[in-house]
Design goal:
single chain; about 250 residues; alpha/beta; Rossmann fold; 2 domains; six-stranded mixed β-sheet; four-stranded antiparallel β-sheet; 9 helices; 10 strands; about 40% helix; globular; ATP-binding; ABC-type amino acid transporter activity
């Protein structure tokens, strides 16, 4: 019986900004349908790792693979641009800040990608947008402009927009960290719904309780390396490494 290949695989990832090495040979594997949460202090390399997966940050060395295809292929010029644009269509990414187009309605924010990049008909894209907005609880906001939405609503639209490209994996980079506390739960609820549907997800988060509820596996990063990883039950109740215990103590001792 052949083993199923990982949906996302990172091999020996290294990245420096000037003299500061922020990724020091990271290896990571995410199986199809798996939810992996990445935790760690600020500056540990979490967001750089996530951004390198869809080549928003180019690695100095190492490889990134998506469903058996190398993301950072040694191509140049237009050949690489065509390749990376094709790859990015298969990865949905949600950032801290919502990056919605302010001059477009919610409907147009969601449908622009599928129509322009995937050649979807407008009627098909509109039907898709209606379904996704219902999924994220915003069916009544389809004609609204971003300026009329709360932060939580904007982030839910951003998730719907990413899902509209029908990606193989969703990448969340501190998706709730810019939100007021009372708006966090509505975004987390959408992510929990995706987890229940077995969407492959890689989630950088500072919310330990949420990570424990939704993740199959938790990675703790510090100083550009993966210090420890395991299922949430082990990571949050009985971490093996002292550095992990010290970091988690301030979150879990209350």
């Amino acid at each position: 019986m052949s083993m199923q290949r990982p949906m996302v695989e990172v091999r020996g990832a290294r990245k420096s900004f000037g003299a500061a090495e922020v990724l020091k040979g990271i290896d990571l594997s995410v199986d199809r349908g798996q939810i992996v949460a990445v935790i760690g202090p600020s500056g540990s390399g979490k967001s750089t790792l996530l951004r390198s997966i869809n080549h928003l940050e180019a690695l100095d060395s190492g490889e990134v693979w998506l469903d058996g295809m190398q993301v950072n292929q040694p191509l140049h010029g237009q050949a690489f641009e065509r390749h990376i644009n094709k790859v990015r269509q298969q990865m949905g990414m949600v950032f801290q800040h919502f990056n919605l187009f302010p001059h477009l309605t919610v409907l147009d924010n969601i449908t622009m990608g599928p129509v322009i990049l995937k050649g979807m008909s407008k009627s098909e894209a509109h039907a898709l947008a209606h379904g996704l907005l219902s999924k994220v609880g915003l069916a009544d906001k389809i004609d609204a402009y971003p300026s009329r939405l709360s932060g939580g609503q904007k982030q839910r639209v951003a998730i719907a927009r990413a899902l509209a490209m029908q990606p193989k994996v969703m990448l969340f980079d501190e998706a709730t960290s810019a939100l007021d506390p009372e708006l966090v739960d509505e975004v987390n609820a959408v992510m929990k719904k995706l987890a229940a549907e077995h969407m492959t997800m890689l989630i950088v988060t500072h919310e330990m309780r949420f990570a424990g509820e939704v993740a199959d596996r938790v990675l703790f990063m510090d100083g550009g390396v993966v210090v420890e990883e395991g299922p949430p039950s082990e990571m949050f109740r009985a971490p093996q490494k002292e550095r992990t215990r010290t970091f988690l103590k301030k979150y879990l001792s209350a």
